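Pilot study result, target chain (83 residues):
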Amino acid sequence: MTPSPSSSVPVVISELICPFCHAHHTETMPIDACIYFFECSACGSILKPKPGDCCVFCSYGSVQCPSVQLARAEGSDALGCCG
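Predicted structure:
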């Protein structure tokens, strides 16, 4: 069973969807760092976080980054930055 984002164990697999070509990329998120840029292998676009998001996973992923997941599990409503 996969832990939910609200559990104390973060989900580390996320599916990034390119906003330009809609290609799907299954990626493993680091627990101790942010990914600020991601190059879509289908169209070559460089994805960057949307304003207010800390990383590409929070902007384009099926699951928010581990730092945000853990902050929410601890009861924090802050969407602070990764790591």
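One observation from the pilot: The helical segments are 56-60, 66-73. A full batch analysis is planned for the follow-on phase.
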